[in-house]
Amino acid sequence: MLKNIQEWTLVFTIIGFITIVGNWIGYNIMPTQAIPGMLLLILMSIIGLALGEILPFKIPAIVYISIIAIVASIPGVPGSDYVVKWTSEVNLLALTTPILAYAGVAIGRSWADFAKLGWRSLIVGTLVLFGTYLGSAVIAEIILRVQGVI
Amino acid sequence: MKLWKDWRLHAVVLGIVVVAELIGSHQFSIGPGVILLLPMLYAIIIGLVLYFTPLLKEKQSKSAETLVFLSVSLLMAKFGVNIGPSIGTILEVGPALIFQELGHLATLLIALPIAVLLGLKREAVGMTHSIGREPNVALIMDKFGLNSPEGRGVMSIYIFGTIFGAVFLGLIPGFLATVLPLHPLSFAMASGVGSGSMMAAASGSLVSIYPEFETDIIALAGASNLISVATGLYVSIFIALPLTEKMYAFFIKFRGKKGKVGNE
Questions:
Q1: Would you kindly state where each structural domain of chain A is located, as residue ranges?
Q2: How far is CA A76 from CA A71, A79, A81, B92, in A?
């Protein structure tokens, strides 16, 4: 467990550093401004991952991480102002770029499998993603309009 | 494991991020729609290309897989801290948030008939019952086995989603948002398909199009994704898979009558 926490901390420090550099270049946010928010995100992730290992439930760690982050940022919860203010200095897109860079390297290995898929899988796969996205958007739109929210 | 020690990988990713962010975002129109190119799209493509150069080896690719999982944790935390302040909005749009999960069934309506039309048989059941992420793969494996046609089907969509999911979901919101008269909040909820990187790509490009809705978009995409992750498997077991079986039986009979391809 302790070894895991140590490993996660080192890994998150590296990812955090890369994110902050991207955050600076792409979104003009000075690293000194972004560091407190980045540290908070790292801390919440480590607690969530640790809970995922300790607790006996079969719930993915990302659910714990989400719950911790939600609770910590609800208005009225002590410190939530700082949580929201600091983390807003870490741009969403700046965080996404390194993840997809790692993903690009990771999928390189699946490329051979992909070549075997054949054209029918490409068509059906495109429709599966398209259908899911569009279906959800249309249902959400209908209910939001019925409710009069938009 | 010692993932942090893979300096070669981290240095390459830092390089990719710097280059991608320096290029910045660009957009161009195709017909009535807009295609938005974001740094994250260059990042995934540069990463893929570099894998085939001597710069990276298979070891880096293996480390990268775990690193995607870990870095998605940070993303979940980022989405979470946007949900807290918007909790009022989330509760207000709660019904839409829950029912749009059923929108995932639309993949059946659109993809299943086409799959059958293309001549696929039982593979089509595995391919179209869901977006084919890890929980869905596990379900199909459990029910039909790894070497069944259904298993091959779900694996092909899993591989497709792994490779193209983020790229695809990074591109279509820009296009659909300019073509369809739907509200950004509806698209935000649709972004939470149940995969971290796909959600990040979809909501990221949505934020670039509607910066004025940034907080709400991130909060709703995050909430919707959380619901998808938590309920996705059960929706598959109790609704999507039985429905897929029924529709498959219907379409395959239809195809049989037309006499194009023989029945099972």
A1: 2-111, 118-150
A2: 10, 8, 8, 19
> CA nearest A26 in B: which residue?
B21
Residue of B nearest to A114 (CA): B159
**Backbone phi, psi, residue B28, to 5°:** -145, 160
- Please write down the HEC assignment for all residues of chain A: CHHHHHHHHHHHHHHHHHHHHHHHHHHCCCHHHHHHHHHHHHHHHHHHHHHHHHCCCCCCHHHHHHHHHHHHHCCCCCCHHHHHHHHCCCCHHHHHHHHHHHHHHHHHHHHHHHHHHCHHHHHHHHHHHHHHHHHHHHHHHHHHHHHCCC
Least confident of B34-43, B141-150, B250-259: B250-259
Q: What is the ipTM of this complex?
A: 0.91
Q: B233-258: per-residue pLDDT in tens? A: 888 899 999 999 999 999 988 877 65
Q: Across the A/B interface, how many CB contacts are shorter than 8 Å?
A: 411
Residue of A nearest to B69 (CA): A99
Q: Show the tokens assigned to A112.
A: 């051979």
DSSP-derived 3-state class of residue B153: helix
CA nearest to B78, candidates A55, A27, A86 = A86
Alpha carbon dihedral A35, A40, A44, A47, in 10-degree steps, equals: 90
What pLDDT digit, counting tens, does each position of A26-61 carry? 999 999 999 999 999 999 999 999 999 999 987 888
Question: Which of B22, B77, B193 lies at the smallest CB-CB distance from A69?
Answer: B77
User: Of A11, A87, A96, which is closest to B3 when you measure between CB atoms?
Assistant: A11
The average pLDDT across B47-65 equals: 92
**Cα–Cα distance measured from residue B155 to residue B22, given in angstroms and rounded to the nearest whole number:** 36
B116 interaction partners in chain A (CB closer than 8 Å): none
User: pLDDT by residue (tens digit) across A104-147?
Assistant: 998 888 887 777 778 899 999 999 999 999 999 999 999 999 99
